[in-house]
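call fold(seq) -> tokens
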Amino acid sequence: MLAVRWVEMRKGDLLEWADALGVTPDEVPRTLRPLVRQCRELLDDTARLRGRIHRVPDRDVDLAFMAMERNLTFVNQALGNALVDAGREVGS
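ret:
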């Protein structure tokens, strides 16, 4: 299971995000915003798909969808937290 812990972004983290995204530190919030939105859309789509296949006879399929939802929820929260922290760091 993934950790459900998040700490406030440090300056080094902002620089690491900028490097990973291929942008300047000031551009991190603007670059993360669409990623957060796309992750949320993917999470919503996954939930809808799981709702449609929930009663399939193969329980492993349902369990796999539940695991995807949990992981996407974690990613969505982590990206959202990074966006808030980056916005705080660069003042946007």
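The longest helix spans residues 59-90.
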